């Protein structure tokens, strides 16, 4: 049974439909990239999975259970770990406090996060608002890992970061997948980076899947992806 399954799923905001009949299944340990131009609905898909957009039709299942009427805060408790594009770090809490407020018992505790991101250990007493963009992103990921999720949803984790930091983060995300077996969904403008981090990808246009395939396949035939994502 898939970990997460969308069946003819429709969602949006108010009267506006953004995700328009999506079929998608993600298995445990699987990595999926969600690609597409600005405004095609990538973030809305993540927000819908987390319960922050209006569910209009179709179904959304988690481990086979219908999530349709489950409020957002309970979805996080069920093992859906969301790392928002805005990162949402508490600026007046320290790095360590930012991590501890999210903590729930499980494999990932403070020590595990500091092993994964040694830079956060060095910065443990710094205020969240005083971190560089890369450190903020590490903290955002670390904080979500503290909830011990089964599925990690990352919205443009590399946005605005220097290439050397992107490389460091990519390595860490690879390790997480390989060693910890996380299922991940990654929304990214940098399509090639995302494809290298995933098993499979979908390309969206106007709230629908217009292209899908294994990441290897799509990397080998990247021109087809670019037809849909080039601006
Ligand atoms: N809170 C909202 N209320 C109403 N419409 C919204 C809201 N957020 C997004 N939209 C609209 O939904 C559509 C899809 O936006 P979404 O942010 O999901 O796209 P995206 O593919 O993630 O783009 P980006 O790469 O710019 O983040 C857009 O037309 C956008 O204007």
Specify the CATH architecture of the domain at 1-79 and 150-157 and 184-231. Answer: 3-Layer(aba) Sandwich
Placed side by side, the strands forming the largest sheet appear as 6-7-8-3-9-10
Tell me the total number of β-strands.
10
Q: What is the overall silhouette?
A: globular
- Topology pattern, helix = H, strand = E: EEEHEEHEHHHHEHEHEEHH
Unreliable parts: none
Features:
231 residues, alpha/beta, Rossmann fold, 6-stranded mixed sheet, 4-stranded antiparallel sheet, 10 helices, 38% helix, 28% strand, binds adenosine-5'-triphosphate
Topology overview:
Layout lengths: L3 E10 L2 E11 L4 E5 L6 H9 L3 E9 L2 E2 L5 H7 L1 E4 L11 H8 L7 H7 L1 H5 L10 H13 L5 E5 L7 H18 L2 E5 L3 H6 L3 E6 L2 E7 H6 L1 H8 L2
Parallel strand pairs: 3-8, 3-9, 6-7, 7-8
Antiparallel strand pairs: 1-2, 1-4, 4-5, 9-10
The protein binds adenosine-5'-triphosphate (ATP).
